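Supplementary Text 2. Reproducibility record for the structural model of the 146-residue chain.

All settings were left at their defaults, and a single model was retained for analysis rather than an ensemble. We include the record here because the model underlies the residue-level annotations in Supplementary Table 4.
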Amino acid sequence: MTPDREVRESLVRRLDDLGAVLMCDDIGELRAMLVGAEPVPRVSPEKVSFGDLVVDAVQHEVAWRGHPLELTRLEHRLLAHLASPPVEVWPYERLFAAVWDSAYLGDSSILHSAVKRLRQKLRALDDGPVVETVRGIGYRLRHAMA
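Retained model, structure tokens:
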């Protein structure tokens, strides 16, 4: 491992509450990116509601109109973040950092796969929420169109 890479990895380990960090070739460029970095919002440990959807982070339960929805731990974390107020567009990097608790290193395929599985489960719900892609930016949760 090169000294520059060791320094970058050391910086990433110390960035516990900051948003995603892209690994770059120049340590000065990395420092410049970090100056304006925003903290990754944390999901409240309580229940999060989005219309008829209730995500309970404490009990690790999700319900749609009072009926339980079976999700994996990862899908649960992903949905909890997307449904947390304020409901907004989550950039890929921030969503990855929040759900996986690690720095985003530029490969979004893991995130896209998790969203695909979550979408399949939400599609099975009657008028359930939809995970919408905001092209080139990230994802947001929205209510189904009637």
